[in-house]
Amino acid sequence: MLNFIDQGHGPAVVLIHGLFGNADNLGRLGTALQAAHWRVIRVDLPNHGRSVMGYPMSLANMAKALEQLRQQLGLDRWALVGHSLGGKVAMTYAQSHPQQVSALVVADIAPVGYQTQRHQSVLATLTELNHQPQLTRKSALQSFNQAGIDSGTSAFLLKNLRPDADGHYHWQLDIGAIVHHYPDIIGPLPEHPPYPGPVLFVKGERSDYLLPEHRPEIGRRFPQAKARIITGTGHWLHAEKPDQFNRHVTQFLAPYQG
After folding, report:
1. Are 193 and 219 in contact (CB under 8 A)?
2. Record keywords: Cell membrane included (predicted)?
3. 61 in helix, strand or coil?
4. Shortest CA distance to 167 belongs to which of 141, 135, 139, 143?
5. Which of 4-13, 15-24, 86-95, 126-135 has the lowest mean pLDDT?
């Protein structure tokens, strides 16, 4: 169900990308964790990359897919690192399967619902492009520019546009499924008992995804939570300052390799 890349040796840690991403997005972190003697499993979320398409992608269902992967791999426990949507999936999994999670890192997201218009221009443009014949990277970039989507986001989205054997471009996203399930994706986490284990929230200083008003909900669900802020970064903190981000994650996870 979930496509994954499994590398390295040691205790297992799974890396989970954000909305419109894929298993490659946290590749630099994966390399750093392998060097720190972790077995690193990077996944494509449902309806992303090479994972199953047409999947009902509520947070609960995506956490269920993650649990199926753990059982498939025969792992007793693993640590989790998730960015953005991947962080919400990781939090949902940790609360619903606490005995299987040795530690949790959440990158620039809170366990709350967000406003529905946050990705509307991206979703509308992707929907339009999804029905466009003879799609090219150039035409897709022109559409993103016309929609006022910034260059960094455009470059990130274009990573999902891949040619087939005949040279025709296709999205490695189920755009229709993402649009349909978007209210679930941006909604709050399902209700489960608090996760009692170690948690690190890492915030990009300039990002508005993780804010002081989210602290009560974080504390309610994750009573052992700690926080770090990476200055001079936004929501893409792992790409903007990868050395700092990777250091925070590897140092936090180090005590939980046993």
Report:
1. no
2. no
3. helix
4. 135
5. 126-135
Query: Which candidate, 19, 4, 5, places its Cα nearest to that of 236?
Result: 19
Q: Tokens for 23, please give them.
A: 């298993």
pTM score, two decimals? 0.96
Of the residues 17, 51, 84, 181, only one is catalytic, namely 84
Closest CA to 214 of 94, 87, 61, 29: 87
Catalytic residue list contains 238: no
Provide the 3-class DSSP secondary structure of residue 165. coil
Write the CB contacts of 180 (distance below 8 Å, at least 6 apart in sequence).
none
235 labelled catalytic: yes
Q: How far apart are CA 41 and CA 240, in angstroms?
A: 22
Q: Of 83, 119, 235, 248, which residue is the catalytic one?
A: 235
